[in-house]
């Protein structure tokens, strides 16, 4: 895949594998025993510079739980200084005062997962007592501060109050509420090997993910498909390079040049399902939104 015809417009920056929650469906297999990996702060600053120099438009800091990364405010400030659009995907349970300051000062957008309007059910999913109360309170605080925030409701178990969860977010004032299903990656795979067929097919098209050890993946779910490592070479050499070309060819071979219907993960800020796209990615393929569409538009 030629880099000239496939600009890198968006990048997930997975700055940590540490998380204070331990959700059974976590695609990244993150949790309290996770680490910040081998990428130093300066390495992340270098990556941000390289992305900006390549014309990347948006980055999303993700984890793990990115708010547990001590230098997140510094990374946000640097990304803002390089004119990158910034979103932080957080469980919204652990936001320090200096992070609120950074969010408001540098125009950061937030995104969060929400599993139920029921405290008990939400906390059962996250396996963190008090998570629902903290997340809900911080959603309210973000909205009060005028910070743009979108919510995603992931259906992880039968009978889950997903519609009520979406309605609760809407009632709080969250303007964009998306939905997602459990995806067979990480802990949600129950030990099964990940496959390209489980990906949507948009991977490595205008987007990539960079993990805590510097590995570059076609997306956060495609972490079993390594395209290079930013500790070994610049992202500009990886993007469109030999390893990326091979990975893209594998994805194309499985998906036969097509892509699945538009039911992307709710941690993807560029679309939905059928939600507004960020300016850097102006294409969608909303042929079938499945049950997630219902979640995205609660009555």
UniProtKB/TrEMBL annotation:
This is MoaA/NifB/PqqE/SkfB family radical SAM enzyme. It comes from Streptomyces fulvorobeus. The keyword DNA-binding does not apply. Residues 202-248 form the 4Fe4S-binding SPASM domain. Residues 14-153 form the Radical SAM core domain. PANTHER family: PQQA PEPTIDE CYCLASE, RADICAL SAM DOMAIN PROTEIN. The keyword Iron applies. It comes from the Bacteria. InterPro entries: 4Fe4S-binding_SPASM_dom, Aldolase_TIM, Radical_SAM_PqqE_MftC-like, rSAM, rSAM_sf. Keywords: Iron, Iron-sulfur, Metal-binding, S-adenosyl-L-methionine. Pfam families: Radical_SAM (PF04055), SPASM (PF13186). One of its GO terms (molecular function) is catalytic activity.
């Amino acid at each position: 895949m030629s880099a000239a015809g496939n600009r890198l417009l968006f990048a997930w920056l997975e700055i940590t594998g540490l998380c204070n929650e331990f959700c059974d469906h976590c695609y990244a297999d993150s949790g309290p025993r996770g680490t910040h990996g081998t990428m130093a702060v300066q390495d992340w600053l270098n990556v941000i510079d390289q992305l900006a120099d390549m014309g990347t438009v948006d980055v999303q800091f993700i984890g793990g739980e990115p708010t547990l990364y001590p230098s997140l405010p510094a990374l946000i400030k640097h990304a803002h200084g390089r004119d990158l659009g910034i979103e932080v995907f957080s469980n919204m349970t652990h936001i320090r005062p200096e992070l609120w300051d950074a969010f408001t000062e540098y125009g950061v957008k937030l995104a969060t997962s929400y599993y139920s309007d029921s405290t008990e059910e939400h906390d059962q999913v996250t396996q963190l007592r008090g998570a629902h109360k903290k997340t809900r309170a911080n959603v309210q605080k973000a909205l009060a501060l005028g910070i743009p925030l979108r919510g995603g409701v992931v259906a992880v178990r039968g009978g889950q109050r997903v519609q009520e969860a979406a309605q609760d977010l809407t009632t709080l004032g969250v303007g964009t509420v998306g939905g997602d299903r459990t995806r067979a990656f990480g802990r949600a795979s129950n030990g099964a090997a990940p496959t390209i067929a489980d990906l949507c097919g948009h991977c490595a098209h205008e987007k990539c993910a960079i993990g805590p050890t510097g590995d570059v993946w076609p997306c956060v779910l495609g972490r079993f498909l390594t395209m290079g490592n930013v500790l070994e070479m610049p992202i500009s050499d990886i993007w469109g390079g030999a390893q990326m070309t091979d990975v893209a060819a594998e994805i194309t071979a499985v998906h036969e040049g097509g892509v699945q219907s538009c039911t992307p993960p709710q941690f993807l800020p560029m679309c939905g399902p059928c939600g507004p796209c960020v300016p850097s990615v102006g294409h969608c393929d909303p042929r079938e939104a499945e049950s997630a569409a219902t979640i995205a538009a609660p009555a």
